[in-house]
Amino acid sequence: MYEPGVIGVWNGANQKLQNFQPCHKRQPLATYHRQHRVLEPGPGCADGVLEYTADPLWPGIPGVQRWHPLTQMLQFSTVHGVDPDRLPGTLYLEVRCRITADPPSGTRWRARNAVFQSVIPSTDYTVTNNPTPDRKIRNVVSIKFDALSRTAAMTYMPRFVKWLKAMNAQPADERKWRAFTMGSYHVLGHNTQVNEVPYLTGQSHTRQPFTNDHGFFPFGDDYTWIWDEYRRAGYKIGYGSQHAINMMGYCLGLPDVADRFDYLFRGQDCYMKTCANFNILNVDPSTPLCSGNVPIGVEFIRYIADAVKDATAAGAGVAFFTDFLETHNCNSPMTAAHVEDAALEAVAQLMEARDDTLLVVYGDHGQHYGKLYNTPWGRVDHRLPLLQVLAPQWWLDEHPDTEAALDANQHEIVTMYDLHATLRHLLTHPTSFSEVGPGIIETMDNPHARSLLDPVRTHPDAYRTCGEAGLDHASCVLSPGSMKVILTPPAIMVDIIEAVVDHVNGHTASHRSPADRPGDGCLEVFIEGDIISGFINGMVRAGATGDIYDVNVRIQPYACTFGAVVEVAHDGLITVHSVAHTSPYAKFETCFAKAEGVPSGMCLCQFPGGPVPASKQDK
Ligand SMILES: [Zn+2]
Protein backbone atom coordinates (compact mmCIF):
# COMPACT_ATOMS: atom_id res chain seq x y z
CA MET A 1 0.00 0.00 0.00
CA TYR A 2 2.86 2.40 0.71
CA GLU A 3 5.45 3.72 -1.67
CA PRO A 4 8.76 1.84 -1.85
CA GLY A 5 10.52 4.90 -0.45
CA VAL A 6 8.59 4.54 2.77
CA ILE A 7 9.92 1.06 3.30
CA GLY A 8 13.37 2.49 2.61
CA VAL A 9 13.04 4.85 5.52
CA TRP A 10 12.34 2.02 7.87
CA ASN A 11 15.13 -0.10 6.43
CA GLY A 12 17.47 2.84 6.94
CA ALA A 13 16.37 3.13 10.54
CA ASN A 14 16.96 -0.57 11.09
CA GLN A 15 20.45 -0.27 9.66
CA LYS A 16 21.17 2.51 12.09
CA LEU A 17 19.79 0.37 14.85
CA GLN A 18 22.30 -2.33 14.01
CA ASN A 19 25.12 0.21 14.32
CA PHE A 20 23.73 1.53 17.58
CA GLN A 21 26.40 1.75 20.28
CA PRO A 22 24.77 1.46 23.68
CA CYS A 23 26.32 3.35 26.58
CA HIS A 24 27.35 0.24 28.49
CA LYS A 25 29.90 -0.61 25.81
CA ARG A 26 31.91 2.41 26.83
CA GLN A 27 34.45 2.63 29.60
CA PRO A 28 33.08 4.58 32.56
CA LEU A 29 34.57 8.04 33.02
CA ALA A 30 33.65 7.81 36.65
CA THR A 31 31.43 5.81 38.92
CA TYR A 32 29.07 7.56 41.23
CA HIS A 33 28.04 5.68 44.37
CA ARG A 34 24.71 7.26 45.13
CA GLN A 35 24.23 5.87 48.59
CA HIS A 36 27.41 7.39 49.97
CA ARG A 37 27.74 10.26 47.48
CA VAL A 38 31.18 9.07 46.43
CA LEU A 39 32.62 9.87 43.03
CA GLU A 40 35.27 7.45 41.80
CA PRO A 41 37.41 8.08 38.71
CA GLY A 42 37.04 5.43 36.02
CA PRO A 43 39.23 4.16 33.18
CA GLY A 44 37.37 5.92 30.34
CA CYS A 45 39.66 8.93 29.94
CA ALA A 46 43.02 7.43 29.00
CA ASP A 47 43.38 9.96 26.20
CA GLY A 48 42.59 13.11 28.18
CA VAL A 49 42.30 14.85 31.52
CA LEU A 50 39.50 13.82 33.84
CA GLU A 51 37.79 16.74 35.56
CA TYR A 52 34.67 17.33 37.64
CA THR A 53 32.45 20.21 38.61
CA ALA A 54 29.61 20.63 41.08
CA ASP A 55 28.38 23.77 39.32
CA PRO A 56 25.52 23.26 36.90
CA LEU A 57 25.73 24.93 33.54
CA TRP A 58 22.94 27.26 34.50
CA PRO A 59 21.50 29.79 33.98
CA GLY A 60 23.41 29.71 30.76
CA ILE A 61 26.12 32.13 31.79
CA PRO A 62 29.53 31.28 30.32
CA GLY A 63 32.20 30.57 32.89
CA VAL A 64 29.92 29.64 35.78
CA GLN A 65 31.31 26.15 35.97
CA ARG A 66 34.52 25.68 37.94
CA TRP A 67 36.35 22.52 36.93
CA HIS A 68 38.72 20.53 39.14
CA PRO A 69 40.94 17.53 38.41
CA LEU A 70 39.40 14.20 39.35
CA THR A 71 42.29 11.96 40.37
CA GLN A 72 40.96 10.15 43.44
CA MET A 73 37.75 9.13 45.13
CA LEU A 74 35.81 12.08 46.48
CA GLN A 75 32.96 12.18 48.92
CA PHE A 76 30.40 14.94 48.62
CA SER A 77 28.08 16.37 51.17
CA THR A 78 25.06 18.55 50.76
CA VAL A 79 27.16 21.66 51.25
CA HIS A 80 28.42 21.02 47.74
CA GLY A 81 24.88 21.32 46.44
CA VAL A 82 23.81 24.15 44.27
CA ASP A 83 21.38 26.65 45.65
CA PRO A 84 21.16 25.02 49.09
CA ASP A 85 18.61 27.59 50.19
CA ARG A 86 16.24 27.03 47.33
CA LEU A 87 16.89 23.42 46.39
CA PRO A 88 18.18 21.82 49.55
CA GLY A 89 19.67 18.42 49.10
CA THR A 90 20.27 18.61 45.41
CA LEU A 91 23.78 17.76 44.35
CA TYR A 92 24.95 18.26 40.82
CA LEU A 93 28.08 16.55 39.54
CA GLU A 94 29.48 16.59 36.10
CA VAL A 95 32.61 14.82 34.92
CA ARG A 96 34.33 15.43 31.66
CA CYS A 97 37.25 14.01 29.79
CA ARG A 98 39.00 17.02 28.39
CA ILE A 99 41.00 15.97 25.39
CA THR A 100 43.72 18.48 24.67
CA ALA A 101 44.67 17.25 21.20
CA ASP A 102 42.68 18.52 18.23
CA PRO A 103 39.90 16.10 17.35
CA PRO A 104 39.94 14.49 13.94
CA SER A 105 38.09 16.66 11.49
CA GLY A 106 34.37 16.01 11.45
CA THR A 107 34.37 14.69 15.00
CA ARG A 108 31.62 15.98 17.20
CA TRP A 109 32.46 17.83 20.39
CA ARG A 110 31.36 14.91 22.50
CA ALA A 111 34.13 12.79 21.11
CA ARG A 112 36.60 15.05 22.89
CA ASN A 113 34.48 16.06 25.79
CA ALA A 114 32.33 13.33 27.25
CA VAL A 115 30.10 14.33 30.11
CA PHE A 116 28.90 12.58 33.21
CA GLN A 117 26.16 13.90 35.45
CA SER A 118 24.41 12.76 38.51
CA VAL A 119 21.96 14.53 40.73
CA ILE A 120 20.92 13.11 44.06
CA PRO A 121 18.75 14.23 46.92
CA SER A 122 20.67 14.57 50.13
CA THR A 123 18.23 13.07 52.59
CA ASP A 124 19.50 10.06 54.47
CA TYR A 125 16.55 7.80 54.09
CA THR A 126 15.17 6.05 57.07
CA VAL A 127 12.44 4.26 55.16
CA THR A 128 12.74 1.48 52.64
CA ASN A 129 11.92 2.13 49.03
CA ASN A 130 8.77 0.08 49.41
CA PRO A 131 6.60 1.96 51.86
CA THR A 132 3.23 0.72 52.95
CA PRO A 133 0.76 2.67 50.88
CA ASP A 134 -1.89 4.59 52.72
CA ARG A 135 -4.45 3.30 50.23
CA LYS A 136 -4.01 5.98 47.64
CA ILE A 137 -1.87 6.96 44.73
CA ARG A 138 0.88 8.88 46.43
CA ASN A 139 2.96 9.97 43.41
CA VAL A 140 2.46 10.89 39.79
CA VAL A 141 5.45 10.68 37.47
CA SER A 142 5.09 11.92 33.93
CA ILE A 143 7.71 10.75 31.45
CA LYS A 144 7.61 12.71 28.22
CA PHE A 145 9.57 11.27 25.33
CA ASP A 146 9.53 14.14 22.89
CA ALA A 147 8.40 13.24 19.37
CA LEU A 148 7.88 9.57 20.18
CA SER A 149 5.16 7.99 18.11
CA ARG A 150 3.35 4.88 19.21
CA THR A 151 4.77 2.92 16.30
CA ALA A 152 8.34 4.05 17.02
CA ALA A 153 7.96 2.98 20.64
CA MET A 154 6.49 -0.40 19.67
CA THR A 155 9.23 -0.96 17.10
CA TYR A 156 12.34 0.36 18.81
CA MET A 157 11.60 -0.23 22.49
CA PRO A 158 10.90 -3.98 22.35
CA ARG A 159 12.01 -4.81 25.91
CA PHE A 160 9.79 -2.08 27.34
CA VAL A 161 6.79 -3.18 25.30
CA LYS A 162 7.41 -6.84 26.14
CA TRP A 163 7.50 -6.07 29.86
CA LEU A 164 4.18 -4.24 29.76
CA LYS A 165 2.57 -7.01 27.74
CA ALA A 166 3.91 -9.72 30.02
CA MET A 167 2.63 -7.95 33.13
CA ASN A 168 -0.78 -7.34 31.56
CA ALA A 169 -0.99 -11.02 30.57
CA GLN A 170 -0.77 -12.16 34.19
CA PRO A 171 -3.94 -12.82 36.16
CA ALA A 172 -5.11 -9.73 38.02
CA ASP A 173 -4.46 -11.27 41.43
CA GLU A 174 -0.84 -11.98 40.50
CA ARG A 175 0.23 -8.81 38.78
CA LYS A 176 1.72 -5.88 40.64
CA TRP A 177 0.61 -3.21 38.20
CA ARG A 178 -1.14 -2.87 34.91
CA ALA A 179 -0.33 -0.83 31.80
CA PHE A 180 -3.03 0.83 29.72
CA THR A 181 -2.17 1.67 26.12
CA MET A 182 -4.22 4.59 24.89
CA GLY A 183 -4.43 3.30 21.36
CA SER A 184 -6.23 6.27 19.82
CA TYR A 185 -4.39 9.09 21.53
CA HIS A 186 -4.19 11.81 18.89
CA VAL A 187 -2.19 15.04 18.66
CA LEU A 188 -3.92 18.40 18.91
CA GLY A 189 -1.57 19.95 16.39
CA HIS A 190 1.82 19.95 14.85
CA ASN A 191 4.53 20.46 17.44
CA THR A 192 5.43 20.50 21.11
CA GLN A 193 3.69 23.61 22.38
CA VAL A 194 0.31 22.89 20.87
CA ASN A 195 0.20 19.54 22.69
CA GLU A 196 2.34 20.15 25.77
CA VAL A 197 0.78 23.39 26.96
CA PRO A 198 -2.72 21.82 27.04
CA TYR A 199 -1.34 18.91 29.05
CA LEU A 200 0.48 21.06 31.59
CA THR A 201 -2.12 23.84 31.84
CA GLY A 202 -5.40 22.62 30.36
CA GLN A 203 -5.20 25.71 28.22
CA SER A 204 -4.32 26.52 24.65
CA HIS A 205 -0.75 27.39 23.70
CA THR A 206 -2.14 30.45 21.93
CA ARG A 207 -2.92 32.21 25.22
CA GLN A 208 0.49 33.78 25.14
CA PRO A 209 2.76 34.36 22.17
CA PHE A 210 5.53 31.81 22.06
CA THR A 211 8.93 33.37 22.37
CA ASN A 212 12.24 31.71 22.88
CA ASP A 213 13.34 34.33 25.36
CA HIS A 214 12.61 32.15 28.34
CA GLY A 215 11.53 28.95 26.78
CA PHE A 216 7.79 28.72 26.89
CA PHE A 217 7.25 27.64 30.45
CA PRO A 218 6.97 27.92 33.32
CA PHE A 219 5.95 31.50 32.84
CA GLY A 220 2.77 33.43 32.70
CA ASP A 221 0.48 33.52 35.68
CA ASP A 222 -2.50 33.42 33.34
CA TYR A 223 -1.90 29.71 33.01
CA THR A 224 -3.09 27.15 35.52
CA TRP A 225 -0.01 24.97 35.73
CA ILE A 226 -0.70 21.41 36.71
CA TRP A 227 2.22 21.41 39.15
CA ASP A 228 0.66 24.33 41.02
CA GLU A 229 -2.51 22.29 41.43
CA TYR A 230 -0.45 19.50 42.96
CA ARG A 231 1.52 21.87 45.13
CA ARG A 232 -1.72 23.26 46.53
CA ALA A 233 -2.82 19.69 47.25
CA GLY A 234 0.26 19.15 49.41
CA TYR A 235 2.52 17.39 46.95
CA LYS A 236 6.15 18.17 46.38
CA ILE A 237 6.68 18.99 42.73
CA GLY A 238 9.51 18.28 40.34
CA TYR A 239 10.52 19.12 36.83
CA GLY A 240 13.42 18.00 34.74
CA SER A 241 14.77 18.04 31.23
CA GLN A 242 17.16 15.44 29.95
CA HIS A 243 18.98 17.60 27.55
CA ALA A 244 18.81 21.13 28.75
CA ILE A 245 19.98 23.25 31.57
CA ASN A 246 16.52 24.44 32.24
CA MET A 247 13.05 24.46 30.91
CA MET A 248 12.31 23.12 27.49
CA GLY A 249 15.81 23.19 26.18
CA TYR A 250 16.41 26.89 26.32
CA CYS A 251 19.45 28.09 28.18
CA LEU A 252 18.16 31.36 29.54
CA GLY A 253 15.25 30.01 31.46
CA LEU A 254 13.48 31.82 34.22
CA PRO A 255 15.73 33.18 36.96
CA ASP A 256 13.29 32.00 39.60
CA VAL A 257 12.81 28.50 38.21
CA ALA A 258 14.38 26.96 41.31
CA ASP A 259 11.73 28.69 43.43
CA ARG A 260 8.97 26.95 41.57
CA PHE A 261 9.97 23.33 42.13
CA ASP A 262 11.06 21.17 45.02
CA TYR A 263 13.13 18.99 42.69
CA LEU A 264 14.81 20.12 39.51
CA PHE A 265 16.87 17.99 37.15
CA ARG A 266 18.89 20.26 34.93
CA GLY A 267 20.21 18.03 32.18
CA GLN A 268 23.69 17.92 30.84
CA ASP A 269 23.86 20.49 28.10
CA CYS A 270 21.90 23.08 26.32
CA TYR A 271 19.84 22.63 23.25
CA MET A 272 20.00 26.16 21.93
CA LYS A 273 23.43 27.05 23.14
CA THR A 274 25.31 24.17 21.63
CA CYS A 275 23.24 23.62 18.56
CA ALA A 276 26.10 24.81 16.38
CA ASN A 277 27.94 21.69 17.52
CA PHE A 278 25.21 19.38 18.49
CA ASN A 279 21.68 19.80 17.31
CA ILE A 280 19.28 17.72 19.32
CA LEU A 281 16.94 17.71 16.38
CA ASN A 282 19.60 16.11 14.26
CA VAL A 283 21.44 13.90 16.72
CA ASP A 284 23.54 11.04 15.44
CA PRO A 285 21.19 8.03 15.65
CA SER A 286 24.02 5.63 16.42
CA THR A 287 25.15 7.59 19.49
CA PRO A 288 22.89 7.84 22.51
CA LEU A 289 23.52 10.42 25.21
CA CYS A 290 25.63 8.68 27.80
CA SER A 291 26.62 9.63 31.30
CA GLY A 292 29.91 7.77 31.30
CA ASN A 293 28.72 4.28 30.48
CA VAL A 294 25.16 4.85 31.69
CA PRO A 295 22.44 6.42 29.53
CA ILE A 296 21.75 9.95 30.74
CA GLY A 297 18.06 9.06 30.68
CA VAL A 298 18.70 6.38 33.31
CA GLU A 299 20.50 8.90 35.54
CA PHE A 300 17.48 11.14 35.13
CA ILE A 301 15.07 8.39 36.22
CA ARG A 302 17.28 7.59 39.21
CA TYR A 303 17.06 11.22 40.23
CA ILE A 304 13.26 11.06 40.02
CA ALA A 305 13.21 7.84 42.04
CA ASP A 306 15.39 9.52 44.66
CA ALA A 307 13.06 12.52 44.72
CA VAL A 308 10.10 10.20 45.31
CA LYS A 309 11.95 8.45 48.15
CA ASP A 310 12.94 11.80 49.59
CA ALA A 311 9.36 13.02 49.60
CA THR A 312 8.13 9.74 51.06
CA ALA A 313 10.60 10.15 53.91
CA ALA A 314 9.11 13.58 54.46
CA GLY A 315 5.59 12.16 54.40
CA ALA A 316 4.65 13.78 51.11
CA GLY A 317 3.83 12.68 47.59
CA VAL A 318 5.52 13.85 44.41
CA ALA A 319 4.20 15.06 41.10
CA PHE A 320 7.16 15.01 38.71
CA PHE A 321 7.09 16.22 35.11
CA THR A 322 9.79 15.68 32.53
CA ASP A 323 11.06 16.26 29.05
CA PHE A 324 13.28 13.69 27.36
CA LEU A 325 14.51 15.30 24.17
CA GLU A 326 16.73 12.49 22.98
CA THR A 327 13.87 10.94 21.04
CA HIS A 328 13.41 14.16 19.12
CA ASN A 329 15.33 13.40 16.00
CA CYS A 330 15.31 14.29 12.35
CA ASN A 331 17.17 11.34 11.06
CA SER A 332 15.48 8.28 12.30
CA PRO A 333 12.65 7.11 14.52
CA MET A 334 15.03 4.52 15.99
CA THR A 335 16.27 7.05 18.56
CA ALA A 336 13.43 5.60 20.61
CA ALA A 337 16.02 2.90 21.35
CA HIS A 338 18.14 5.55 23.09
CA VAL A 339 15.63 5.95 25.89
CA GLU A 340 14.51 2.36 26.29
CA ASP A 341 16.80 1.79 29.26
CA ALA A 342 15.32 4.89 30.89
CA ALA A 343 11.80 3.57 30.33
CA LEU A 344 12.79 0.22 31.85
CA GLU A 345 14.40 1.99 34.80
CA ALA A 346 11.21 3.98 35.35
CA VAL A 347 9.11 0.82 35.50
CA ALA A 348 11.64 -0.88 37.78
CA GLN A 349 12.02 2.02 40.19
CA LEU A 350 8.49 3.39 40.23
CA MET A 351 6.20 0.42 39.55
CA GLU A 352 8.20 -2.62 40.72
CA ALA A 353 10.07 -1.18 43.71
CA ARG A 354 7.05 0.86 44.86
CA ASP A 355 3.31 0.44 44.74
CA ASP A 356 2.04 3.96 45.27
CA THR A 357 2.80 5.66 41.96
CA LEU A 358 0.93 6.41 38.76
CA LEU A 359 3.34 6.45 35.84
CA VAL A 360 2.46 8.20 32.59
CA VAL A 361 4.75 7.62 29.60
CA TYR A 362 3.92 9.63 26.52
CA GLY A 363 5.05 11.38 23.37
CA ASP A 364 3.72 14.87 22.69
CA HIS A 365 3.61 14.07 18.96
CA GLY A 366 5.37 11.74 16.56
CA GLN A 367 8.36 12.57 14.45
CA HIS A 368 7.51 15.80 12.68
CA TYR A 369 10.60 16.54 10.65
CA GLY A 370 12.76 14.77 8.19
CA LYS A 371 12.55 11.87 5.86
CA LEU A 372 9.97 9.88 7.74
CA TYR A 373 7.64 12.83 8.13
CA ASN A 374 7.89 13.53 4.43
CA THR A 375 6.16 10.28 3.65
CA PRO A 376 2.43 9.59 3.75
CA TRP A 377 3.04 6.99 6.42
CA GLY A 378 5.02 9.48 8.48
CA ARG A 379 2.14 11.94 8.35
CA VAL A 380 -0.07 9.44 10.10
CA ASP A 381 2.65 8.28 12.48
CA HIS A 382 3.23 11.85 13.63
CA ARG A 383 -0.34 12.21 14.80
CA LEU A 384 -0.47 9.06 16.90
CA PRO A 385 2.09 9.35 19.71
CA LEU A 386 2.66 6.96 22.58
CA LEU A 387 0.49 7.18 25.69
CA GLN A 388 0.86 4.54 28.41
CA VAL A 389 -0.70 4.83 31.85
CA LEU A 390 0.67 2.45 34.48
CA ALA A 391 -1.18 1.99 37.76
CA PRO A 392 -0.68 -0.30 40.78
CA GLN A 393 -3.01 -3.29 40.64
CA TRP A 394 -4.15 -2.99 44.27
CA TRP A 395 -5.45 0.49 43.50
CA LEU A 396 -7.29 -0.78 40.43
CA ASP A 397 -8.73 -3.61 42.52
CA GLU A 398 -10.09 -1.11 45.02
CA HIS A 399 -11.63 0.96 42.24
CA PRO A 400 -13.02 -1.49 39.67
CA ASP A 401 -14.94 1.29 37.89
CA THR A 402 -11.67 3.17 37.37
CA GLU A 403 -10.00 0.06 35.99
CA ALA A 404 -12.94 -0.58 33.68
CA ALA A 405 -12.82 3.03 32.46
CA LEU A 406 -9.08 2.94 31.79
CA ASP A 407 -9.57 -0.37 30.03
CA ALA A 408 -12.32 0.97 27.77
CA ASN A 409 -10.60 4.30 27.13
CA GLN A 410 -7.71 2.47 25.49
CA HIS A 411 -9.95 2.30 22.43
CA GLU A 412 -11.19 5.89 22.53
CA ILE A 413 -9.85 9.00 20.86
CA VAL A 414 -8.14 11.02 23.58
CA THR A 415 -5.94 14.12 23.65
CA MET A 416 -3.59 15.96 25.96
CA TYR A 417 -6.56 17.93 27.30
CA ASP A 418 -7.92 14.65 28.60
CA LEU A 419 -4.61 13.80 30.26
CA HIS A 420 -4.65 17.17 32.01
CA ALA A 421 -8.21 16.56 33.21
CA THR A 422 -7.13 13.10 34.38
CA LEU A 423 -4.35 14.37 36.62
CA ARG A 424 -6.63 17.06 38.03
CA HIS A 425 -9.32 14.43 38.63
CA LEU A 426 -6.84 12.15 40.39
CA LEU A 427 -6.50 14.75 43.14
CA THR A 428 -10.11 14.17 44.16
CA HIS A 429 -10.46 10.53 43.07
CA PRO A 430 -12.57 8.45 43.72
CA THR A 431 -15.08 11.26 43.39
CA SER A 432 -16.49 10.86 39.89
CA PHE A 433 -15.50 13.19 37.09
CA SER A 434 -19.14 14.03 36.47
CA GLU A 435 -19.04 15.66 39.90
CA VAL A 436 -15.68 17.46 39.82
CA GLY A 437 -15.26 17.74 36.05
CA PRO A 438 -17.27 20.94 35.49
CA GLY A 439 -15.06 22.84 37.93
CA ILE A 440 -11.94 21.51 36.21
CA ILE A 441 -13.18 22.15 32.69
CA GLU A 442 -14.14 25.69 33.65
CA THR A 443 -10.44 26.57 33.86
CA MET A 444 -9.61 24.80 30.59
CA ASP A 445 -9.75 25.85 26.97
CA ASN A 446 -11.43 22.67 25.81
CA PRO A 447 -14.94 21.88 27.06
CA HIS A 448 -14.63 18.36 25.61
CA ALA A 449 -11.92 17.29 28.06
CA ARG A 450 -12.68 14.19 30.11
CA SER A 451 -10.79 12.17 32.69
CA LEU A 452 -9.37 8.83 31.64
CA LEU A 453 -10.38 7.52 35.06
CA ASP A 454 -14.02 7.68 33.96
CA PRO A 455 -15.47 6.66 30.57
CA VAL A 456 -14.67 9.44 28.08
CA ARG A 457 -17.27 8.59 25.48
CA THR A 458 -20.21 10.93 24.97
CA HIS A 459 -22.76 8.35 23.90
CA PRO A 460 -22.74 5.00 25.69
CA ASP A 461 -23.17 3.02 22.49
CA ALA A 462 -20.67 4.79 20.25
CA TYR A 463 -16.97 5.49 20.26
CA ARG A 464 -15.99 9.07 20.85
CA THR A 465 -15.57 10.97 17.59
CA CYS A 466 -12.77 13.41 16.72
CA GLY A 467 -15.18 16.28 17.27
CA GLU A 468 -16.28 14.92 20.64
CA ALA A 469 -12.63 14.79 21.63
CA GLY A 470 -12.27 18.45 20.62
CA LEU A 471 -10.14 17.70 17.59
CA ASP A 472 -10.30 19.63 14.37
CA HIS A 473 -11.94 17.35 11.85
CA ALA A 474 -9.52 18.39 9.14
CA SER A 475 -6.45 17.33 11.11
CA CYS A 476 -7.79 14.20 12.77
CA VAL A 477 -6.59 11.08 11.00
CA LEU A 478 -8.97 8.97 13.06
CA SER A 479 -12.09 10.54 11.60
CA PRO A 480 -14.25 8.32 9.47
CA GLY A 481 -13.47 8.41 5.77
CA SER A 482 -11.01 6.68 3.57
CA MET A 483 -7.48 7.96 3.62
CA LYS A 484 -5.56 7.56 0.40
CA VAL A 485 -1.98 8.29 -0.48
CA ILE A 486 -1.69 10.77 -3.32
CA LEU A 487 0.75 9.13 -5.71
CA THR A 488 0.08 11.31 -8.74
CA PRO A 489 -0.75 14.92 -7.96
CA PRO A 490 -4.16 15.80 -9.35
CA ALA A 491 -4.68 19.05 -11.26
CA ILE A 492 -6.24 20.68 -8.22
CA MET A 493 -2.83 20.47 -6.54
CA VAL A 494 -1.62 23.61 -8.32
CA ASP A 495 -4.45 25.57 -6.72
CA ILE A 496 -3.82 23.94 -3.37
CA ILE A 497 -0.14 24.90 -3.45
CA GLU A 498 -1.04 28.47 -4.32
CA ALA A 499 -3.46 28.59 -1.41
CA VAL A 500 -0.76 27.32 0.95
CA VAL A 501 1.75 29.88 -0.30
CA ASP A 502 -0.84 32.65 0.07
CA HIS A 503 -1.36 31.52 3.62
CA VAL A 504 2.38 31.57 4.37
CA ASN A 505 2.77 34.99 2.82
CA GLY A 506 -0.24 36.29 4.67
CA HIS A 507 1.15 35.19 7.98
CA THR A 508 4.67 36.43 7.50
CA ALA A 509 4.02 39.70 5.68
CA SER A 510 2.89 41.62 8.73
CA HIS A 511 6.04 41.11 10.71
CA ARG A 512 8.93 41.30 8.32
CA SER A 513 12.14 42.57 9.80
CA PRO A 514 12.75 46.24 9.26
CA ALA A 515 16.04 47.05 7.58
CA ASP A 516 17.56 48.27 10.84
CA ARG A 517 17.23 44.87 12.46
CA PRO A 518 19.51 42.74 10.39
CA GLY A 519 20.84 39.43 11.41
CA ASP A 520 18.85 38.34 14.39
CA GLY A 521 15.25 39.06 13.61
CA CYS A 522 12.69 37.62 11.34
CA LEU A 523 13.74 37.48 7.76
CA GLU A 524 11.57 39.12 5.20
CA VAL A 525 9.67 36.38 3.52
CA PHE A 526 7.62 36.62 0.44
CA ILE A 527 7.39 33.48 -1.53
CA GLU A 528 6.82 33.91 -5.22
CA GLY A 529 5.01 31.20 -7.08
CA ASP A 530 7.93 30.52 -9.39
CA ILE A 531 10.37 29.59 -6.64
CA ILE A 532 8.27 26.76 -5.33
CA SER A 533 9.33 23.31 -6.30
CA GLY A 534 5.89 22.22 -5.23
CA PHE A 535 4.11 19.20 -4.02
CA ILE A 536 6.15 16.43 -2.45
CA ASN A 537 3.56 14.02 -1.28
CA GLY A 538 0.34 13.84 0.64
CA MET A 539 -2.83 12.08 1.55
CA VAL A 540 -6.46 12.73 0.80
CA ARG A 541 -9.61 11.62 2.51
CA ALA A 542 -13.29 12.38 2.34
CA GLY A 543 -14.43 15.04 4.76
CA ALA A 544 -17.94 16.10 5.63
CA THR A 545 -18.08 18.88 3.07
CA GLY A 546 -15.33 17.98 0.65
CA ASP A 547 -11.96 16.30 0.20
CA ILE A 548 -9.28 16.96 2.78
CA TYR A 549 -5.74 17.11 1.47
CA ASP A 550 -2.82 16.68 3.79
CA VAL A 551 0.17 17.78 1.73
CA ASN A 552 3.80 18.79 1.88
CA VAL A 553 4.87 21.77 -0.19
CA ARG A 554 8.54 22.52 -0.70
CA ILE A 555 9.76 26.13 -0.82
CA GLN A 556 13.00 25.85 -2.72
CA PRO A 557 15.19 28.86 -1.77
CA TYR A 558 14.79 28.22 1.93
CA ALA A 559 15.12 24.50 1.47
CA CYS A 560 12.11 24.12 3.67
CA THR A 561 8.86 22.27 3.59
CA PHE A 562 5.44 23.33 4.73
CA GLY A 563 2.88 20.77 5.70
CA ALA A 564 -0.69 21.86 5.16
CA VAL A 565 -4.21 20.63 5.71
CA VAL A 566 -6.36 21.96 2.89
CA GLU A 567 -10.02 21.32 2.26
CA VAL A 568 -11.41 21.34 -1.27
CA ALA A 569 -15.16 21.66 -0.87
CA HIS A 570 -17.60 19.96 -3.19
CA ASP A 571 -18.20 23.31 -4.88
CA GLY A 572 -14.46 23.75 -5.45
CA LEU A 573 -13.82 26.32 -2.71
CA ILE A 574 -10.35 25.86 -1.21
CA THR A 575 -9.84 26.46 2.52
CA VAL A 576 -6.46 26.22 4.21
CA HIS A 577 -7.00 24.82 7.71
CA SER A 578 -3.46 24.76 8.99
CA VAL A 579 0.07 25.27 7.78
CA ALA A 580 3.20 24.35 9.67
CA HIS A 581 6.83 24.43 8.78
CA THR A 582 8.27 20.93 8.75
CA SER A 583 11.81 21.06 7.43
CA PRO A 584 14.51 19.15 9.26
CA TYR A 585 16.26 22.18 10.69
CA ALA A 586 13.06 23.94 11.70
CA LYS A 587 14.44 27.36 10.90
CA PHE A 588 10.99 28.78 11.15
CA GLU A 589 10.57 27.35 14.60
CA THR A 590 13.75 28.06 16.50
CA CYS A 591 14.29 31.65 15.48
CA PHE A 592 15.87 33.12 18.58
CA ALA A 593 14.46 36.61 18.40
CA LYS A 594 11.07 36.44 16.83
CA ALA A 595 9.17 39.59 16.15
CA GLU A 596 6.23 40.14 18.42
CA GLY A 597 3.06 38.38 17.42
CA VAL A 598 4.60 35.96 15.00
CA PRO A 599 2.65 32.72 15.02
CA SER A 600 4.71 29.75 16.05
CA GLY A 601 6.51 28.27 13.12
CA MET A 602 5.97 31.17 10.76
CA CYS A 603 9.07 33.28 11.27
CA LEU A 604 12.07 32.38 9.16
CA CYS A 605 15.28 32.76 11.13
CA GLN A 606 18.08 34.79 9.75
CA PHE A 607 21.34 32.96 9.95
CA PRO A 608 24.87 33.76 8.79
CA GLY A 609 25.40 33.33 5.09
CA GLY A 610 21.74 33.17 4.24
CA PRO A 611 19.68 30.12 3.57
CA VAL A 612 21.45 26.80 3.90
CA PRO A 613 21.54 24.87 0.64
CA ALA A 614 19.36 21.79 0.61
CA SER A 615 22.31 19.46 0.21
CA LYS A 616 23.78 20.55 3.53
CA GLN A 617 20.62 20.14 5.49
CA ASP A 618 19.27 16.87 4.45
CA LYS A 619 22.07 14.64 5.66
ZN1 LIG B 1 7.79 17.87 20.97
Shape, per Cα inertia axes:
globular
Secondary structural class: alpha+beta
Major sheet attributes: 7 strands, mixed
Tell me which ligands are bound: zinc ion
Strand order within the widest sheet?
9-17-16-8-15-11-12
The CATH superfamily of the domain at 119-124 and 137-398 turns out to be: Alkaline Phosphatase, subunit A
User: What's the helix count?
Assistant: 17
Task: Explain the overall architecture.
With 619 residues, this protein is of the alpha+beta class. Among the domains are: 119-124 and 137-398, Alkaline Phosphatase, subunit A (3-Layer(aba) Sandwich); 483-594, Nuclear Transport Factor 2, Chain: A (Roll). The protein has 17 helices and 23 strands. The protein has helices spanning 4-18, 109-112, 150-156, 158-169, 192-201, 226-232, 257-260, 296-313, 340-352, 370-373, 376-383, 393-398, 400-409, 416-426, 433-442, 492-508, 614-617; strands at 30-33, 38-41, 49-53, 68-69, 74-75, 91-98, 115-120, 139-144, 177-181, 184-185, 236-241, 263-265, 290-291, 294-295, 318-323, 357-362, 387-392, 413-414, 483-485, 532-542, 546-555, 560-569, 574-581. Strands 9-17-16-8-15-11-12 form a seven-stranded mixed beta sheet. The relative contact order is 0.12. Residues 146-147, 191-192, 328, 364-365 line the site of zinc ion.
